[in-house]
Amino acid sequence: MIPVSFDYAAPKTLREALGLMAAGAKPLAGGMSLIPMMKLRLAAPESLVDIGRLEELSYVREQGGAIHVGASTTHYDVQSSPLLLGKCPLLSETAGHIGDIQVRNMGTIGGSVAHADPAADYPAALQALEASIVLKSSSSERTVSAADFFVDAFTTALEPGEIVSEIIVPVDGESIGTSYRKCVHPASGFAVVGIAARLRRVGGKIDFARIGVTGFAGHSYRALKAEQALVGKAGADADVRAAAALLADGVEANSDLFASPAYRAQLLAAYAARAFAAAIKRSA
Ligand code: FAD
User: Fold this and answer.
1) pLDDT, tens digit, for every residue of 23-51?
2) Whose CA is closest to 158, among 170, 172, 148?
3) 63 and 133 share a domain?
4) Least C-beta-crowded within 10 Å: which of 3, 144, 161, 284?
């Protein structure tokens, strides 16, 4: 189908882009989600402002003890960034699970985060990394935690006129082991369930655990009970299985043609056990 007609602007600066958004324009980044929605006429914006070409939003840099990733950084650049591979490998690993190489070359981290598909991959990693998301408008700037940003399916803390300008993730020391595991939907490639694990072991015992889940519920979340269950344990198979069984506790599972809530819960426990085992191995 052909989208309804719309105005298109490709400003040279973020300031100009934010000005156009203040006047009602909708941001276009990689177009990997927005353009199909416009073609299906699920979205019909009157004017688009192209922020995917803004070089000032495309970067990965270390600053103040953390790593800042500009919103227009493509999934491929997140996947292959030497800085992230060395100091925050969970984000790179997760980016490598997104779609195919064409999608990773065009799609952006800011676009994915703002779109907030409940089956998207990044949100699990951003929950486990306790990432911060910087939101800017023509007149304001604020920082929101990943836990507060993802509100519901396709719903975030973004206010009209705001864009995601950057994502801030921590520098993970060598003692922290991380892993992302995903049950890939055979048709779409999205996560039926996805688990990001981030663990540290000291003296043979886990003393720090952060777990992010995507695909299972209406929005991504941190699995706090499973985190608590891992702390103080050696990370033996029984510890891993016991923690994995707590991931769905108190959470209403998605249900669709591919996976019932019960089947999704089984998938979640199985993929979590793999993610925990890999993270524990890497933390050694
Ligand atoms: P766009 O499509 O340009 O925009 C998406 C939405 O976000 C629009 O509403 C837009 O207005 C808004 N927006 C864009 N940038 C910003 C910003 N900086 N601030 C505020 N709002 C903004 N994703 C996965 O996670 N896992 C997968 O396995 C996966 N597989 C895919 C397979 C295919 C074939 C396709 C087409 C997509 C797939 N995706 C997958 C989605 C992909 O990751 C998209 O790149 C992402 O959802 C949207 O990013 P984008 O840069 O293309 O944003």
Assistant:
1) 999 999 999 999 999 999 999 999 999 99
2) 148
3) yes
4) 284
Give the end of a domain, one of 144, 170, 196.
170
How many C-beta neighbours within 10 Å does residue 273 have?
Answer: 19
Condensed to tens digits (0 to 9), the pLDDT of residues 206-219 reads 999 999 999 999 99
For residue 2, the model assigns a pLDDT of 87
Tens digit of each residue's pLDDT (9 = 90 or more) over 247-259: 998 999 999 888 9
Q: Which of 47, 53, 98 to mutate to test the pocket of ligand 1 (most atoms within 8 A of CB)?
A: 98
Q: What angle do CA 219, 190, 147 make, to 5 degrees?
A: 25
- C-alpha of residue 173 to centroid of ligand 1, in Å: 30
**CA 109 to ligand 1 centroid distance, Å:** 8
pLDDT for the residue numbered 40:
94
Looking at residue 32, what is its pLDDT? Answer: 97
Q: How many domains does the chain have?
A: 3
Q: How far is residue 125 from each of residues 91, 136, 143, 174, measured CA to CA in Å?
A: 6, 22, 18, 18
Same domain for 161 and 72? yes
Q: Is residue 2 part of a domain?
A: no
Q: How far apart are CA 48 and CA 40, in angstroms?
A: 17
Ligand 1 pocket, residue 3 CB under 6 Å:
no
Kind plus residue range of the DSSP H or E element containing 200: strand 191-202
